[in-house]
Amino acid sequence: MKRRSKSRSGRSWLIAVLLASAAVVFGFTLLMVRLEVTQEGYRISALRTEVEKLQQDNQRLRLEAAELSSYQRLRSLAPKYGLRPPAPGQVVMMR
């Protein structure tokens, strides 16, 4: 009978060790998943900040392009480069 109880106590010890190991592995896996989620959250936040900055830069550049190509600016720069309105007969309209 002693042999049987020794084998049972050995099995219960093995089961306890396996359950404890499974709990440790599960806990570690859960910790790693939470760490990845946190890192992705920081990455998303940084990307949102970058997108906002790029949108502001885009808006600034569009405004600058509109100012540089404005009719009044081009009209004032034309004489500096020897440009003038076309003479009569220089413009031909095609239908």
Give an overview of the whole structure.
This protein has helices at 2-68, 71-77. It contains 2 helices and no strands. The chain has one domain. The chain is mainly alpha-helical.
Instruction: Tell me the helix content.
Output: over 70%
Radius of gyration from the alpha-carbon trace, in angstroms: 38 Å
Provide a count of the helices. Answer: 2
| Uncertain regions spanning at least 5 consecutive residues | none
Topology at a glance:
Blueprint: H1 2-68, H2 71-77
Concise overview:
By secondary structure, the protein is mainly α.
What tags apply to this protein structure?
95 residues, mainly alpha, 2 helices, 0% strand
